[in-house]
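Postdoc handover notes: sequence design on the structure in folder B. Input tokens:
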């Protein structure tokens, strides 16, 4: 697991955008397509704004969601609402290149199955995503894999529905889908994340984030979150 500690959240966002852009250019050359899975959060939206200014082969990029709240289209609670706002038309990324989780369907289990099939159409069977971006909650959750939710044990599907968390049920990628990714990029900022980031870096599997694969993982953190960590030599 790689670790970089940067000065502040803006620096983390810019560094993350550069890593994603480099991965996108390489993937399009190697495989003709780059499939990026994006989580929600304030710093990630800054990351995606920075990414929108990168010189990348936009026609080969496909963006999927790591997780999504069940809320109406356009609602401020939807990660998709903010994702769309962060990728202006100047990027040349067409709306059809973003694949929303179908949280408007009444049957969330069927919606999860539908999104699993979408991932397979984009990234093979089983789906191997090129890069999965993850955040880290102060309770140790990542994606919508939250402490105590049965979704933590959903090991035979790539997408699953969750219980209610912070007022909303959700769809989320599961551990198998995340752990198969070619690269996992953690973006962690804020002093409230310090304890959980330390536990994640130590490989503490008692928190949901600690069960994510480490071999191809890269942590970018600001000083507020990572000041107690020393990158491995």
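Designed sequence:
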């Amino acid at each position: 697991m790689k670790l970089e500690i940067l000065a502040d959240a803006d620096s983390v966002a810019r560094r993350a955008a550069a890593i994603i852009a480099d991965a996108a250019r390489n993937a399009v050359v190697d495989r003709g397509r780059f499939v990026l899975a994006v989580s929600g959060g304030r710093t990630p939206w800054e990351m995606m704004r920075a990414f929108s200014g990168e010189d990348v082969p936009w026609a080969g990029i496909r963006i999927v969601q790591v997780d999504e709240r069940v809320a109406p289209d356009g609602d401020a609670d939807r990660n998709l609402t903010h994702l769309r706002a962060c990728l202006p038309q100047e990027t040349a990324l067409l709306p059809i290149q973003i694949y929303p989780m179908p949280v408007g369907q009444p049957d969330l289990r069927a919606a999860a199955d539908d999104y699993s099939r979408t991932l397979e159409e984009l990234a093979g069977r089983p789906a191997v995503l090129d890069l999965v971006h993850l955040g880290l909650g102060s309770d140790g959750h990542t994606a919508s894999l939250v402490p105590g939710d049965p979704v933590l044990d959903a090991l035979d599907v790539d997408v699953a529905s969750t219980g209610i968390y912070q007022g909303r049920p959700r769809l989320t990628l599961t551990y198998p889908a995340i752990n198969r990714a070619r690269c996992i990029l953690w973006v962690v900022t804020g002093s409230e994340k310090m304890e959980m980031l330390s536990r994640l870096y130590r490989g503490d599997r008692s928190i949901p984030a600690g069960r994510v694969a480490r071999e191809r993982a890269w942590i970018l953190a600001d000083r507020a979150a990572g000041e107690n960590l020393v990158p491995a030599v």
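Context for whoever picks this up: The mean pLDDT is 94. Don't rerun without checking with the PI first.
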